[in-house]
Amino acid sequence: MNLRLIAILFFFLATIYCIQSCNSFSSSSGDTVVEKVPEKISYNFDVRPILSDKCFACHGPDANKREADLRLDVAEEAYKALKENTGAHAIVPFKPQTSEVFLRISSNDSTQIMPPKSSNLKLTATEIAVIEKWIKQGAEYEEHWAFTPPQIPEVPNNKNKDWAQNEIDHFILAKLEQEGITPNPEADKERLLKRLSLDLTGLPPSLTLMDKFIADASEQAYEKIVDSLLQSPTFGEKIRSTGWMWHAMPIRTAIKMTTTVRSGHGEIGLFMRLMRTYLTINL
Predict the structure, then answer these.
(1) Could you tell me if 54 and 115 are in contact, meaning their C-beta atoms sit under 8 angstroms apart?
(2) Torsion, CA 124, CA 72, CA 62, CA 105, rounded to 10
(3) How many C-beta atoms surround the C-beta of residue 246 within 10 A?
(4) Which of 83, 203, 240, 256 has its CA 20 to 30 A from that of 49?
(5) What is the pLDDT of residue 263?
(6) The dihedral sign for the CA sequence 63, 66, 67, 69
(7) CA-to-CA distance for 46 and 32, rounded, in angstroms?
(8) What's the CA gap between 130 and 41, in Å, rounded?
(9) Buried (b) or exposed (e) across 10-42, using 16+ Cβ within 10 A?
(10) In sequence order, what are the residues at sequence separation of 6 or more whose Cβ sits closer than 8 angstroms to the Cβ of residue 151?
(11) Rounded to whole angstroms, how far apart are CA atoms 17 and 263?
(12) CA 237, 241, 243, 245: dihedral to nearest 10 degrees?
């Protein structure tokens, strides 16, 4: 009898522990969601991918598959009154609580939630938070980034002030901090040269090259070793074996490699053919 009471008590305590653990996990996950949502939501980079993956199949440009005559890929259509309920709107800028899109994706009602369970699609808590914040900020649509003239963005102000060495590093670090990731420390010279040599030539560096790189204490040591590898015949051989890479190579880089290709293979005609192909594809 005593053993049975002990077993019941143990089971009861274990159940309480599990419930408390789940609750604490849920609250900590919620905090993480807030941290991961960008300060300024971009439709192109934050919202469009979510809608494209989870919503556009039924509410996108394909009229044959469109449900409820609702389009979410066009601002004017998303802002209009719903056909089935003229007193409601899919998206009301600055007002997520009156936007049917937010109400549906955050609903706990299985008959109201979107996407429907039959689609086997579901928005994560982070994605819901992104949509909510985007609507709060005005639900501004943007033309596809491929048709938008590039503009110089503001360099992020990161918590870590020492890691970034140039403007691009600041953007990389901002994304890492948004995801709660701490950047790795800089690799030592041996690892840097090994990675560089394998990438450019497909071969590990020689001991002579390694000693030369380690002994060079100047700020231009890395640039010097890059130039040295670009001038090696093995680099030309790798380019020849992976000629498709030339299609995506910037012209300035390709011109810089002319000597390498010629010295590596003795075929200046190869370079001209590659350049012709590159210009044809890109122009």
Answers:
(1) yes
(2) 30
(3) 21
(4) 83
(5) 46
(6) negative
(7) 17
(8) 7
(9) eeeeeeeeeeeeeeeeeeeeeeebeeebeeebe
(10) none
(11) 71
(12) -90
In contact, 272 and 244? CB cutoff 8 Å: no
The residue among 48, 60, 34, 31 whose CA lies nearest residue 133 is 34
Closest CA to 281 of 251, 256, 242: 251
| Average pLDDT of the chain, as a whole number | 80
Two tokens at 94? 């600055």
DSSP 8-state assignment for residue 205: P
107: which DSSP letter?
-
Instruction: Give CB contacts under 8 A, 24+ apart, made by 54-61.
Output: 54/115, 54/121, 54/122, 54/123, 54/127, 55/114, 55/115, 57/119, 58/115, 58/119
Beta strand segments in 23-107, E:
none
Can you give the C-alpha Rg of the chain in angstroms?
A: 28
Rounded to whole angstroms, the Cα distance separating 43 from 130 reads 10
As given in the structure block, the two tokens for residue 275 are 């350049």
CA distance linking residue 175 with residue 159, whole number of Å:
12
What is the C-alpha to C-alpha distance for residues 33 and 205, in angstroms, rounded to an integer? Answer: 44
Q: Is the pLDDT of residue 30 over 50?
A: no
CB-facing half-sphere around the CA of 30: CA atoms within 13 A: 5
Mention every residue, 6+ apart, whose C-beta is less than 8 A from residue 271: 254, 257, 258, 261, 262
| AA identity, residue 128 | I
For residues 118 and 129, give the distance between their C-alpha atoms in angstroms, rounded to a whole number.
23
Name the pLDDT band for 135 (thresholds 50, 70, 90). very high
pLDDT tops 50 at residue 261: no
